[in-house]
Amino acid sequence: MASQNPNESLSVFSNIAQAPEDPILGVTVAFNKDQSPLKVNLGVGAYRTEEGKPLVLNVVRKAEQLLVNDQSRVKEYLPITGLADFNKLSAKLIFGADSPAIQESRVTTVQCLSGTGSLRVGGEFLARHYHERTIYIPQPTWGNHPKIFTLAGLSVKTYRYYDPSTRGLNFQGLLEDLTAATPGAIVLLHACAHNPTGVDPTVDQWEQIRRLMRSKGLLPFFDSAYQGFASGSLDADAQSVRMFVADGGECFAAQSYAKNMGLYGERVGALSIVCKSADVAGRVESQLKLVIRPMYSNPPIHGASIVATILKNSEMYNEWTMELKAMADRIISMRQQLFDALQTRGTPGDWSHIIKQIGMFTFTGLNSEQVAFMTKEYHIYMTSDGRISMAGLSSRTVPHLADAIHVAVTSMT
Q1: Which of 21, 105, 282, 347 is deepest in the core (most CB within 10 A)?
Q2: Which of 177, 223, 237, 403 is catalytic?
Q3: Is the CA virtual torsion 320, 326, 329, 334 positive or negative?
Q4: Contact, 241 vs 86, CB < 8 A?
Q5: Candidate list 142, 200, 351, 403, residue with the active-site label
Q6: How many CB atoms lie within 10 A of CB 252?
């Protein structure tokens, strides 16, 4: 009789199955194993320089230096809600300095663990305290959204968002699905630079969405992962959120500083809830604390201190906006270069969606078979739905990608 591995038989977890790789993070795992000098990783949702290197913003280095040199700084726990300055400045950044909601103390903001943590805390709060447990998320959306809200205790449904035939917004489908949604349901909205499609509603379309949602009492929950990073303008990228706050109604906003300050690994985020009155906001905050306390007790201090340092110093703030615009402009330029390269090659199809879409990601329209072919033959890595990170491209790698797309499209339909 074949003997078992003695160590294996002792484990109470012997029957555990190997879990599949995360579809997004798994791309990087495969990329790292590839020995080819031609390899390109377009799966990662993180900014890269023209040289393909991660970027730490100059203004972030300055802020860190100030913090390190400040002898009065200690490592004590933050309150459950996080760093007060950070919370106040984060609300101001997304809602606008002159927001009536802020002036009337109708906003409660808590520091969370980046965008993911902010969504999770918001979802769990809603599952405990909101009368409607259903949340509608766009189809498609970021792969983590359905998991976060399901585990938070909400029932996840979808509304139509992307139209593969136009590689643009399925606005009619979106309106129909929100019209048919359960009255009072929660609706997840990407504030700007929709992930994974890069397709955003126009200002007029946002206004129609707002009117429809308010008429049906649907509760907006914004995920703002890219403010300033999409267009290069912090105000333009927050416009959708501000429209919903301006009408006096209630809404949720999850913010992340991963992309726009390059603070990926610091896990810096905030959840803001705009309420009808200051009194309600106070009670909402008291219950948010009860969600956070048994989850992770209180948030980390370093990343939030970096953000607060930059946001409250006008000189540093201006430097940040310039660095932010430079990142956004590089991504916009990569879109143009890729579009031009495909035009030059006469690649079949209309590729104008590459320059129409916005933000870090482009939904190329390539199918999973074409993606697999490009990985195998050209060492280009991306998620199987054809989403590519424009930030992972450079002037050097655009021709290689264009060649791969051209061959994939012409040889495989």
Answers
A1: 347
A2: 223
A3: negative
A4: no
A5: 142
A6: 25
Tell me, yes or no, if 163 is annotated catalytic.
no
DSSP three-state, residue 291 = helix
Q: How many CB atoms lie within 10 A of CB 242?
A: 15
Alpha-carbon Rg for the chain in angstroms? 22
What pTM does this model have?
0.94
Q: Is 399 exposed, middle or buried (0-12, 13-18, 19+ CB in 10 A)?
A: middle
The angle that helices 314-345 and 398-411 make with each other, rounded to 10 degrees, is 40
**How far apart, in whole angstroms, are the C-alpha atoms of residue 413 and residue 410?**
7
Rounded-to-integer distance, Cα 347 and Cα 366, Å: 13
Six token digits for residue 215: 């008429």
Residue 279 · residue 268 · CB < 8 Å: no
Instruction: Give domain 77-312's CATH number out of 3.20.20.140, 3.40.640.10, 2.60.120.200, 3.30.1490.20.
Output: 3.40.640.10
Q: What is the DSSP string of 12-41?
A: TTTTPPPPPPPTTHHHHHHHHH---TT-EE
Tokens found for residue 55: 């970027």
Alpha carbon separation from 130 to 145, 153, 180 (Å, rounded) = 19, 11, 20
pLDDT-based confidence at residue 22 (cuts at 50, 70, 90): confident
209: three-class secondary structure by DSSP: helix
Task: Give the domain 22-56+329-411 fold.
Answer: Aspartate Aminotransferase, domain 1 (3.90.1150)
Q: How far apart are CA 15 and CA 356, in angstroms?
A: 49
Q: Which position has the higher pLDDT, 287 or 27?
A: 287
357-376 confidence digits (pLDDT tens): 999 999 999 999 999 999 99
What are the structural domain ranges in the chain?
22-56+329-411, 77-312
pLDDT tens per residue across span 297-345: 999 999 999 999 999 999 999 999 999 999 999 999 999 999 999 999 9
Tokens standing for residue 368: 């999973």
What are the distances in angstroms from CA 214 to CA 217, 366, 374, 383? 5, 37, 45, 36
142 assigned to active site: yes
Distance, CA of 340 to CA of 23 (rounded, Å): 30
Q: Which member of 39, 62, 259, 320 is catalytic? A: 259
